[in-house]
Amino acid sequence: MSERLINGLHHVTALASNPQRNVDFYTGILGLRFIKKTINFDAPDVYHLYYGDEAGSPGTIMTFFPYVGIPKGRKGTGQLTYTAFTIDQGALSFWMDRLAAFNIPFEGPKQRFEEKYLTFEDFDGLGVELVAVANDPRQGWANDIIPAEFAVKGFHTVTLHEASADRTVQLLTEQMQHKLIAEEAGRFRFEAGQGGGGNYVDVLYVPNSVKGLQGAGTVHHVAFSTENDETQLAIREKVLSMGFQATPVIDRNYFHSIYFREPGNILFEIATNPPGFTVDETLEQLGSKLQLPPWQEPNRGKIEQILDPIEPKVWAAPQR
Ligand code: ZN
User: Most buried in the list 142, 223, 299, 319, measured by CB within 10 Å?
Assistant: First the structure.
């Protein structure tokens, strides 16, 4: 058995149009912990906001670049269109009530691969799903408003919308250590690492679908988890050997990253699990203060002036 180079999902990064509205949805309504307030390292006048479980564990991390006022994108091929999170089976009616209480339109419960799920969109139109499962041992983040039994636990699946799927499937199975575990109505489910929630990728083969357009409410990239710098270099060699243009390793402060485009044009990243989000603040303090990478620290005054303040807070559902 060859060495495990890919564990499953690490994070998903998407585009948003308003930082506070973004926080309102993911912490206010979904109850994810706000784990890091930093900047887009490639565009320091834009926030990079991170949400996750208590510690921001790989496989729970949803992140956003909120470019203020950018136009809405369009879902379509060449995109990751839906990010699914796990909830406990017993939490389904809690979430139907909670979404309804906040006037978030949703479809479902529907059923896929024998699991019930809800489909909806965030305030920018980003596709989100909650999948009710029987046996996901992950804890999510319990808080005053959403107790542990109802908490969102982390990722379940990401759905890749592909106009042609063969080469993407080949990349996932031959280079990225995923295996096909199920198929239903043009949806092919792949599993990595130890399997289960946070380790699924669905390739949805939709040859006649419109092409996606990047903008608010669309995913920028999906990152897969690798154990350390050595396994990252090994997986980089593998994708290079297949002819993909992988970047050199880039220091993202909380993880080290390489990027390449898969054959369907979705941007893939491979991110190391260490060092993680406690590299610059304690577990208790995660998300409480604007964190800058060391090379931007001299510009803190200017950056803090440009960015609008945001307030993350889990909302109590309005009484109906
Ligand atoms: Zn990333």
Answer: 223
Give residue 260 CA to ligand 1 midpoint distance, Å.
Answer: 11
For the segment 43-93, what is each residue's pLDDT rounded down to a tens digit?
999 999 999 999 999 999 999 999 999 999 999 999 999 999 999 999 999
Q: How far is the CA of 264 from the centre of ligand 1 (A)?
A: 18
| Dist. CA 319 → ligand 1 center (Å) | 38
- Please return the burial class of 197, using the count of CB atoms within 10 Å of its CB with bins 0-12, 13-18 and 19+: buried
Neighbours of ion ligand 1 (CB under 5 A): 13, 223, 269
In 3-state terms, what secondary structure has residue 20? helix
Question: How much distance in Å is there from the Cα of 3 to the middle of ligand 1?
Answer: 24
Beta-strand runs (E) in the chain: 8-16, 33-40, 43-52, 61-66, 79-88, 106-112, 115-121, 127-133, 154-162, 179-184, 187-191, 200-205, 219-226, 250-251, 256-261, 267-272
State in Å: Cα 224 to ligand 1 middle: 9
Class of the CATH-defined domain 8-306: alpha beta
Dist. CA 218 → ligand 1 center (Å): 14
Cα 143 to middle of ligand 1, angstroms: 27
d(CA 41, CA 34): 19
Sequence ranges of the domains in the chain: 8-306
